[in-house]
Amino acid sequence: MYRLSPPTEATLESLLDHARAGPHNYAEVGLSQGNEAPPGYWPNRGQATLPVAFDHACEALLGLQMFDLGWLRAVGTVAVGEPVAVTTRVLGVWTAQACRVIYVEREQSRLRWGYGTVAGHAMAGEERFELRREGDRVVYEVFSYSRPATLFSRLALPLVRPLQRRFAVDSAARMARC
Fold first, then answer.
1. What whole-number distance in Å separates Cα of residue 145 and Cα of residue 43?
2. Residue-range domains of the chain with CATH
3. pLDDT tens digit string along 140-163?
């Protein structure tokens, strides 16, 4: 969805409903649990050590705070099978794209979850968000792989790829402030 004004709550609810029921738009569902992108996809990765307690960072991760960036935000619930809608504003144009949570893994020293794009999303692929304790440090990592799902997104790649890299950096900085 592309608009000149922000999407309404009703529009986002409709998008979330579609994502809850719709199929994924790629075949490699769940592969973001590993560390490599499948053939034909572009990987993206960002990592930072956080100056916060692990439990506090986990609350922030499950609360989607890494998306609270001004130019980007998300709504939804981090639970397997539940949708998340991501809204961005770039060059005066608003987009809203939906994904569905594929897995949530919680251990004593690690929390990670991943979602995948669904039919209607401009891109195809997955993104994983992870927190882990490494000694007395808390490490945040975002890993994704994607490829264009539409002709428009293929044409927009010179803009999309830098935005994906920016998100990896900005989300880590946001998590450091949680």
1. 4
2. 2-176 (3.30.530.20)
3. 999 999 999 999 889 988 888 899
